[in-house]
Amino acid sequence: MNDVQRVCSRFHAAIELIGARWTGAILRAVFTGRHRYAQIKAAVPGVSDTMLAQRLRTLEDEGVLERRVLPSTPVQVEYHLTPKGRDLDEAMEAVRAWADKWIPAKGPPDESAAGHGG
Amino acid sequence: MNDVQRVCSRFHAAIELIGARWTGAILRAVFTGRHRYAQIKAAVPGVSDTMLAQRLRTLEDEGVLERRVLPSTPVQVEYHLTPKGRDLDEAMEAVRAWADKWIPAKGPPDESAAGHGG
Asked: Which residues form the HTH hxlR-type domain (chains A, B) (predicted)?
């Protein structure tokens, strides 16, 4: 592999990770202090339990989230960002900021797509 | 659509745009001063003419690149970033920086995957 391909391959692995449906909203929830399953679910409207559980597992497997089982009765499970996960914040915020500025909002017509003045 | 869905939908549009295969390398080439088709192609090893032409067209349609036909003989075509395209730099760099730090390099074993120290 040459350098460009090497960079591309890592870039794509990152894009695949953060671009998976729901992942952005799930990480956003954890970034903003929602650590329990029910809190994360409430912050990601429309996600099914199967999908949310699967995404959380993937993010755990990827080393982005850490699953903590609290020694309580009943047992409480929390999801926390790892250093790798916390580091994602800047990249995701930068994509979000760009999208916010440049991608027209789909929604009621009164929500004007601002930021095209460039 | 609620707010989360609205943000998600824009975020995904952005991810789809920058995450398309070759797009990162193509934009990187233009960002670094390669404006002609042949220069861009040389900077993106492995891309076919069909694919490169298609990607350039999409980026033009999306308003990320501007195609300029220079009044020369023979006609020269150049691709330049629009303000929307220039604004992408930060987001793409942030994703790239994260990937560089956290995604293990696939390649010869002597290329150690640095940056996992957190």
From this structure: 8-107
